[in-house]
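Follow-up to my earlier ticket, as requested here are the two runs.
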Amino acid sequence: MLLALVAALGGVGIGGMYLWLTSAPREVRVPDVAGINLRAAEEMLARRGLVAQVAAQRYDEKAPAGDVIAATPAAGRTVRQGRVVELIVSDGPPSVRMPDVREMELSRARDVLTKSDLRLARIARRYDDNVPRDWVMEQTPAPGDRVPRRERVELQVSAGPAPSPTPPEQRAEAKQAVVQVVLPPGDRDYSVRIEVEDQRGLTTAYNAWEKPGATVSRVVSGYGDAVARVYVDNELIEEKRF
């Protein structure tokens, strides 16, 4: 009787093990869903019998908004069907609201843009009889726009009233200054432009492509109160008055 009982219990155990093995969720590998849209990731996981769940969202400089950045368990892991796969989804690059720097003095506008983590890339000057010199008239991007951090900003700044023709006897003699810039290292050429603004107006003194790491040094000329501005890849990096 004892042997019969042991045999019966053994049969129950084996049967239960067989039932568990045949009814338990089968194992699958977690697919690689990083870098694809959330909807596509959900469908891919569902086809494997896995459940997608957004665990967090965060800004990412490289991943477009709505794309999956990472998943847990990681791609290639073996799990049973029905397992929840937690996803981290991109909110896109971090953005800021473009401040309104119109009708601001240029120095103050620079400070506002810097505090907003934006880059002043280019200053375009034009004469205006009504707007004081060095005050901002227009801006791109427009005020209120949502833009990525470190976005390049272009300002149109007043050069003051247009100068009156100067009689020959009152014309200032040309002055000269040395403008120099050292380009950063890298694997691409840089666009270098030097502009001079003086009593005669705005002129381009130099405009060329230069090798990375090169030192660009030029002698520029101006009349009266002159200022030389150096742009690298259209970004203002230096102003020199002479």
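Run two:
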Amino acid sequence: MSDSRARIMAKVKASVQADSRSAETLAALEARLASPQRGLVPGRAQLDAAGLLVLFESMARGQSASIDHLDDVAEVPAAVSRFLKTENLPAKLRMAPNPDLEALPWQQESLLTVETGSAQGDDLVSLSACFAAVAETGTLVLTSGTGSPTSLNFLPDTHIVVLQADQVVGPYEDLIDRLRAAYGSGEMPRTVNFVTGPSRTADIEQTIQLGAHGPRRLHILIVGAKAARVHE
């Protein structure tokens, strides 16, 4: 190691050691984690459940997502088939190995081929269940795990997401509370993806192009969302 590099590393080490973790510092950190402070919540996110659904749908549509409303989760297979037909897409999809999704009546859609697992290079359509959605920005929140491979969120050209109406929260502060409650103190999933509409870029001549870094279509199936049917 060169002398200059050694001096830099020595300063970094000394700085880390100087800052590190006295009993008082650790106690302060533990206290902050135990009682996290919430930021200011925008007024538009302080709504009742019906209002949050309407806000989420408005924000998501504004980011080029399409939405379908279902009364019951058992309607998902038929809704998926209908969407693929409408968009002139192949009747085939890669689905997350989620027990709740696998238990749906897929056998009723005899023309639809459903495979489970992580996305492969030739998959055109994927189906996932999400952890939550944030009404404030129209954002879906998808956590990684054995039942929710992250590749399904980005590789296929079309991403279909099942969202339960009661999974919609107002601000991000409420989302963080749900994550803490679901995973426990000091724990988080390996990856938390925030998806707001299809992938896009305006790098080329300042013109919006969909599908730049991921799916060009995002279709959301909202289950139990009668109150949000403001566009139908």
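The only thing I checked on run two: The chain has a mean pLDDT of 87. Let me know what else you need.
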